[in-house]
């Protein structure tokens, strides 16, 4: 991967005060293509994305903004992405050394969501670790795999058979490279949507977003075996009750959840 084709988008937001930064970042960072932020000049906020957020969302901030391609993203990532510890995992880029005593996950930052820095990814990793300490699923499905980080984590925790699916070709390409970086050979990658998946799974992972989760409740129900588990994230605490009620009506039983900076990760079981 050269990085030249995968340069992220740079969004420059002008006339921003220091007291506005947190609110702007919170509003714009939930997009699945979020990369990182920085502030070079006073009054300007620079946001970087692998995939641009919707134009309506950008216009809704009520600020002057400019969209361009980042000129030197690899150098910026080498400065900003230093790796992150999440539970027993250490998620790192290839240029950072592994940490002894932690389960190593190497992620080359590109178009796929999942470098371990976002709360949704962290919540998923923590919930996976907790669940796999109690049960040993044989077949796992990762819906919206992005960088492949969750599939890689499951493989390193001993899951023998994993299917990972994403509708974004750039994401699956990045996931394929990350599988190689981690010497993971038991993950089947699929370019497409959950409709393309057949069979039943002991555990399904779905770190996507509120609306995509709602759209796929029936598919998730079809794909997880009776008594099997579902871990979901990508939605906020304010939406938790509404979303979990929908899953309960579909036959899922919520077991537990965690909240990291307003982002929720929930564990459910297919009650039949």
Q: Could you name the key traits of this structure?
A:
272 residues; alpha/beta; Alpha-Beta Plaits; Rossmann fold; 2 domains; seven-stranded mixed β-sheet; 9 helices; 14 strands
- Compressed to H and E, one letter per element, the order equals EHEEHEHEEEHEHEHEEHHEHEE
**Anisotropy-based shape:** globular
Largest sheet: 7 strands, mixed
Which range does the strand content fall in?
25-35%
Structural domain tally? 2
Order of strands across the main sheet: 10-9-8-11-12-14-13
Termini gap: 44 Å
Radius of gyration, taken over Cα atoms and rounded to an integer in Å: 18 Å
- Mean of the pLDDT scores? 87
Number of helices: 9
CATH topology assignment of the largest domain: Rossmann fold
User: What is the multimeric organization of the chains shown?
Assistant: single chain
CATH superfamily label of the largest domain: Vaccinia Virus protein VP39
User: What level of helicity do the residues show?
Assistant: 25-40%
The computed structural class is: alpha/beta
CATH architecture of the largest domain: 3-Layer(aba) Sandwich
Count the beta strands.
14
Poorly predicted segments: 1-5
The CATH class of the largest domain is Alpha Beta
